[in-house]
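Researcher: For the record, we're logging two predictions in this thread. I'll number them. Prediction 1 follows.
Model: Prediction 1, sequence and structure:
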Amino acid sequence: MSEIDARPRRHASGPVRHGRLHTPSAVGLVVKSLAVALAVVLVSVSGVAAYAITNLAQQVNENAVDISGGEVIAAPPVLGAFEGGFNLLVIGTDNDPNQGDTYGERDATLNDVNILLHVSADHKNAVVVSFPRDLVIAHPECTDPQTGETYDAMSAQPLNEAFSRGGLACVNTTIESLTGLDINYAAATSFNGVIEMTNAVGGVPVCLVEPIFDSDSGLDLPAGTSVIQGQMALAFLRNRHGVGDGSDLARIASQQQYLSSMARTLKSADTLTDITKLYGLASAAAQNIQLSTSLTSLDSMVSLALTMKDVDLNNIVFVQYPAQGDADWPGKVVPVQSTADALFAKILADQPFTLAEDSTGTGSTVVADPTTETPDPTTTTDPADPTATDAPVTSAPEVLEGVTGQTAAEQTCANAFWG
């Protein structure tokens, strides 16, 4: 694999480096917190008090960033579901200026968690793709919309360097270049955002096969299911050395367990009908999330929420971007291009797919949930019903081999790593 073709033209802090303390990646804000929670939140709390909504909207707008590159993004309908599909990028940074050196010192802000949500045009399916922070890829030229500074393209560098080359807008451009998707909506959060969002929802249930104690992240949980929030939620999502094989890919599996559990929590009546929790989510989001300007209007967030709220949990698929180790890049991963191409061909064509058996990510085990019924993957006509003879037959979606992940409906538990 080739080295860098060109370095950034200007980099005030020098080459991007991890600092003195090894710190696992920041936690990407739960995609559902934005696509479902945040938007539904703002709809629900709009009846609480007009001044409160105005205050939240002001906070969001003051911190917004333009990712459009000058293109005009069509406004969504007022209080109506989004027309067609959409793509939303959510990143987690590990060096927010407000966090200080609590989690270690680093020389630059890195986009250590990168999660893409794609909702199909018919609003029946959604795919959530997690990109490894150490995925070595080409980086396009980027211009920072806030400073006007331009950075040259690079042939091969880890994904988590994109933020240092132009912030949220550059990460968005880099993921667009990698996937071939147009991404019109984006958001960034840091450690504080994860803590506050988890607290606002009242905690998220997570499951461990065995007890895990990891002094690096601060994770200390027993076997079985625990409802976590605050610093413990952050520790679960940051934890790397205590789960699976100790790799970043294993951590992604834990994050997907958390995301799917959060999705189920947000779908529950206790959350979506609790005005206090809903307003708390909106307030936490406004104070701790940087949104693209395309997401700053209440209409935009409401529209995305109304689009997502009825997607069945079985049809929300969390996957890892296909990647594998490479001898030329010790400790990093490179794309499995053929599998990645097959995955994004499905996404671009809005075609649903399923995962193969035993395809859960490294460090994650599926457990049975007695309250969940397994859906019938096929629909056929009833020969006893003469009126149904012309009804169409729906086949099960294609299985994508080599893609790991789980659905939002699946219950999974994290496996401990003992080195």
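Researcher: Logged. Prediction 2.
Model: Prediction 2, sequence and structure:
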Amino acid sequence: MICASRYQTARATCAAPAAPAGGAWSARGRGCGYLAAVPIALFALSATAADAISVPSGQAVTLAEVLLDDAPGQPGKTWARFRFLAPQIARGTGSVTYEAAAPDMDHLCDTLALPYLAEHGLEAARVVISLSDRAVPFGAQDPEATQFFEAYRPEGAACTWEAF
């Protein structure tokens, strides 16, 4: 379970569209490029082994931050973005492929994101789960980073995968 005092949320003022299914590998990823202003300060968490979250692939995954922003093209709707560090997805040195990490993202949505939203009384039109091999500021481009993204529609106690 996520402790409210430890994992804080932030609302981004830009509406960065999510990357395509399977993740963005190029330096020309999508996003707002920067956060113009953030009413609640972004709270980045240190990634330690003690914070590791169990996922189907067995890789070490830690929650880096949770962002809430307006849904692209859907005024009044919110997207909840759960950003995780997953060093083992790194190109060249990592051992976890997208195919192995996809079930991890499904699992994180069902077992971490949905309970988090319920605990904080939040409703989201979409939940975006992202895995990154390194810390990358939201909306920033890092051609060396490996990132996987998936979007889900919350439906009761389950997440339904949304194709882009």
